[in-house]
Amino acid sequence: MSNIEESIARRFFTHVLPTDALVDPTFLAPWLKERALRVQPLAFPPVFALGSAKLEAVYSICRLSRPTTVVETGVANGASSAVILKALAENQRGELWSVDRPPLTPFQKPTVGSLVPELTNRWHLLFKDGLRGLSIVLRSVPSVDVFLHDSKHTYSRMSKEFCLV
Q1: Cα separation, 154 vs 27, whole angstroms
Q2: Most exposed among 72, 106, 116, 120, judged by the fewest C-beta atoms under 10 Å?
Q3: How high is the pLDDT of residue 47?
Q4: Residues 69, 145: contact at Cβ < 8 Å?
Q5: How many Cβ atoms sit within 10 Å of the Cβ of residue 127?
Q6: Which domains does the chain have, with CATH numbers?
Q7: Rounded CA gap, 77 and 98, in Å?
Q8: HEC string for 130-155
Q9: What are phi and psi of 124, to 5 degrees?
Q10: Counting beta carbons within 10 angstroms of the beta carbon of residue 91, is it exposed (0 to 12), middle (13 to 18) or buried (19 or more)?
Q11: What is the pLDDT, as a whole number, of residue 21?
Q12: pLDDT bucket at 22, cuts 50 / 70 / 90
């Protein structure tokens, strides 16, 4: 995370959100590390996951906003999926709808979302290419409370996903 991103995150969490509403997401890094050690080898390199500060932000947003429907594009090993599902489980409400492209190799398919195991009761995972998968999910849910884009990071793709949602 850059200094600018860190500064923005710090301002968001200390000035925008009431301090009594803050949750403590610092447990996430060791929690995810322990999960990753259990499922070695991971099919996707760690660079595919959001960094720990961003995962903490996603967790905090989901805990504090108490969403009914969360939609994400991009799963890989499932770090962000696990964090979102952990927050939803602690809220005792909400579902996560995830879209990821079909795995490239047979080895990858069972490992997509491998950091999620016991949290799957609130999770819908769809393997579809591109915007088609997101369109299918959006037709399946009444509304989207939280959206996380973490798939193809091009201006064109991101703009189309944000417009669809």
Answers
A1: 32
A2: 106
A3: 57
A4: yes
A5: 14
A6: 24-164 (3.40.50.150)
A7: 12
A8: HHHHHHHHHHHCCCCCEEEECCCCCH
A9: -120, 120
A10: middle
A11: 42
A12: very low
- What is the C-alpha separation between 69 and 90, in angstroms, rounded? 15
Cβ proximity of 66 and 92 under 8 Å: no
Question: How many angstroms separate the Cα of 27 from the Cα of each of 34, 59, 89?
Answer: 11, 11, 15
Mean pLDDT of all residues in 4-32: 55
List strand residue ranges (DSSP E) for 26-158, in order. Answer: 69-73, 95-100, 123-127, 146-149
Cα distances from 50 to residues 15, 80, 115, 131, 135, in angstroms, run 23, 7, 13, 21, 24
| Assigned token pair, 131 | 């915007």
pLDDT given for residue 88 in this prediction:
95
Tell me the pLDDT tens digit for each residue of 48-101.
667 777 888 888 899 989 999 999 998 888 889 999 999 999 999 999 999 998
Tokens found for residue 35: 């999960």
